[in-house]
Amino acid sequence: MANLKQLAQSLGLSITTVSRALDGYADVSATTRERVREAADRVGYRPNASARRLRKQRAELVAVTLPSDPGHIGPPHFLDMLSGCAEHLAAAGLNLVIAPVPRGESELDICRRFVDGRRVDAMLLVRTKRKDERVEFLQSRGIPFVTNGRTESLTPHPYIDGDGFAGFRAATLRFHAAGHRRIGHIAGPQEYFFAHDRCRGWRAAMEECGLATDLCAEGAPLEQGGYLAALELLRHPSRPTALVCATDEMAIGALRALREVDGGNQISIVGHDDLPMGAFTSPPLSTMRMTGEHLGASFASLLLRAIAGETAEELQELHAIEFVDRDSHRRPLRAA
Amino acid sequence: MANLKQLAQSLGLSITTVSRALDGYADVSATTRERVREAADRVGYRPNASARRLRKQRAELVAVTLPSDPGHIGPPHFLDMLSGCAEHLAAAGLNLVIAPVPRGESELDICRRFVDGRRVDAMLLVRTKRKDERVEFLQSRGIPFVTNGRTESLTPHPYIDGDGFAGFRAATLRFHAAGHRRIGHIAGPQEYFFAHDRCRGWRAAMEECGLATDLCAEGAPLEQGGYLAALELLRHPSRPTALVCATDEMAIGALRALREVDGGNQISIVGHDDLPMGAFTSPPLSTMRMTGEHLGASFASLLLRAIAGETAEELQELHAIEFVDRDSHRRPLRAA
DNA sequence: CTTGACTCCCAAAACGTTTTGGAGAATCCT
DNA sequence: AGGATTCTCCAAAACGTTTTGGGAGTCAAG
Is B40 at the interface with chain A, CB within 8 A? Predict the structure, then answer.
């Protein structure tokens, strides 16, 4: 409630001494240190954050930009991730501000505002694109940041990501091993790294198996996008018998398309993200997800290490993808 | 990139003039104003946020505490709500920081830290309890805040909430009108206002219809809580034929219990929240939700008005509840 | 020529903290 | 006793902005 000056006056000490006592410096005697601390507790003194930030030239803040483009925000785990991240950051004295992108502004504008206005010490980026202007900007400014998702940036930067290539390759190979030969891919917008990475994984597997890679349709990473893409693949002269979908939401849209076209249950399907609702679709949606326990904490920890000055190469976490097998990936394979 | 001093020097002006030019004061000539603005643009000058905050005695920050108690955080819309809220606040120059509660600390501790450390100008509270110590604290400090959910606080405070009482009363009456006589309620923890409010709505309807109110079981507001509560009600000598559940998650748990006990499909059920996954349960879950378009924006707007000094009474928004009818509320009613 | 109003600008204070660079007193060593 | 060392403490600067309270200069009216 009070400030340092008043507290110092009431104790008959200088501002300096009170400040140092509270910070536990050794150059104030144990006696006065205790006296100061007790008085501070009694008055409920808390240093004024703005003043400290100005003096220490640190904002004690980190921002994460929330993409608002395609209707909604990431998987439902996303808030939990953010929350875990914020909690971990808070333990290091950093608060997390969420920065949605208002219409008419770009994510780059946001970064600029936060960085150049010295509003934050570091940034968190999600939904990276293969060529991501935010990354380029932050690199040019030399401000610490971690991305959730890789980019194709030539100079390395810290990230945390799932190995979509390996995951989608494995899923495709598994379909092949189960006898499928016409395996389609429902892809997300290819400017996003994750979408392109997953697409590459599918393509790699198909080529390893000597199969054609024409059964691929791209759509918005939403239910509707998956629906439309699936309809497109179903119109193909030789229909797919299995579908590997870039996201669960798209997979759910694809399920709707399958139901409409042939009553469903004919075509195997697998998604990615492990959305809770996947457990309730019919058939229950088989899916994949990034391994790892406390992703939010990892994210935060990478950022803290980046702030501490570790080099980008040490700060790249690529997590394996694991299958979450339910039912949709093992529809009976009928002869063509 | 530069600060006011450097910018002023490079222009041969005083700091004062540059500052006032940028803020558009009338006491600097149009000519110099333009000159300053153009120079500022060229250098990419942005005022240092910490300095401004210190001087203006405003943190330009708002915090929302994220409850971490029961495993996860609110309905999935929650992040969208927060995002909309943050966007609206940002337009007024306020940034939203999310403040999850670390283990070992209470939400009250968080409020204290943020408020007494002058880290925020206002607060947002979610998941209110009937008697909420955070509300009491903020009221005692006189800092603006808005809650998402009402409380039983004697002195009024700004809130935005759904009319759970009316919604659950209506849902119960509808079951009664459909011929149900043994209508059970699966309640959330009664210390939460929303849970108690919804329970009261059910109870009021039952009493209006002259029905006993003993078919009520309380549980954690999670799938498992609903499951256990449903099992409890199903053990009752005269089983319910319909179930009104405090949340969709609990309703989904109840559906699982029903499936296990009698193969499901015998008992009508309705939840609240309109979780996306409700569309995929079997039977598809009928539910309710708060009316209103941009809840996040409303939330933010209430807060801005609170900061502007409007009185609490003008800042209470109670939204009607609307039904989202799918299938689970109209199971055939069999004779007892 | 003086007065008052108006225009454009600025020096300095203030916000509340942290940190620098000592100062004075006590203690230790020789 | 005298110098070196250690222990406590503090005055003042600094962080970068906004705001206060004028100060010159110009112009028109008296």
Answer: no
**Contacts with A, B 247-266, CB within 8 Å:** 252
Which among A72, A73, A86 is the nearest to B99, CB-wise?
A86
> Which pLDDT score, from 0 to 100, does residue A71 have?
46
Q: Is pLDDT at A74 greater than 70 in this prediction?
A: no
By CB neighbour count within 10 A (0-12 exposed, 13-18 middle, 19+ buried), where does A308 fall?
exposed
Cβ-nearest to B118 among A50, A275, A282: A50
Residues 115-154 of B with CB under 8 A from A: 116-119
* Nearest DNA or RNA nucleotide to A14 (CA to C1'): D10
Closest to A221 (Cα-Cα) out of A201, A246, A242, A197: A246
Report pTM.
0.93
Q: Give the residue with greater pLDDT, B156 vs B103.
A: B156
CB atoms within 10 A of CB B57: 10
Amino acid at B46: R
What CA–CA distance (Å, rounded) separates B236 from A195? 52
CB atoms within 10 A of CB B203: 19
pLDDT of B305 over the 90 cut: yes
Which residues of A fall within a CB distance of 8 Å from B102? Answer: 87, 90-91
Indicate yes or no: strand D within 7 A of the C-beta of A35: no
Flag if B63 and A87 touch (Cβ within 8 Å): no
The 10s digit of each residue's pLDDT in A288-328 is 999 998 999 999 999 999 999 999 999 999 999 999 999 99
The whole-angstrom separation of Cα A64 and Cα A69 is 15
Distance of CA A233 to the CA centre of its chain: 29
Specify whether the CB–CB gap between A201 and A172 falls below 8 A: yes
Please list every residue in chain B whose beta carbon sits closer than 8 Å to the beta carbon of residue A82: 79, 98
pLDDT in tens, A119-148: 999 999 999 999 999 999 999 999 999 999
d(CA B82, CA A97): 11
Give kind and range of the element (H or E) at residue B32.
Answer: helix B30-43
Residue B153 DSSP class: -
Instruction: Look over chain A and give the mean of its residue pLDDT values, rounded to a whole number.
Output: 94
- What number of other Cβ atoms are within 10 A of residue A50's Cβ? 24
| Spatial strand order in the sheet of B159-162 | A316-319, A159-162, A145-148, A122-126, A61-66, A95-100, B95-100, B61-66, B122-126, B145-148, B159-162, B316-319
* Degrees to nearest 5, angle at CA B212 with B207 and B215: 115
In this complex, the answer to whether residue B120 has its CB under 7 A from any atom of chain D, a nucleic strand, is no
**Token output for B325:** 């009818």
> How far is residue B97's CA from residue B149's CA, in Å, rounded to a whole number?
20
Yes or no, beta carbons of A63 and B95 under 8 Å apart: yes
A318 SS3 class: strand
User: Measured between alpha carbons, how far is B329 from A40 in angstroms, rounded to an integer?
Assistant: 59
**B277·A279 Cβ contact <8 A:** yes
DSSP string, A155-216: S---EEEE-HHHHHHHHHHHHHHTT---EEEEE--TTBHHHHHHHHHHHHHHHHTT-----E
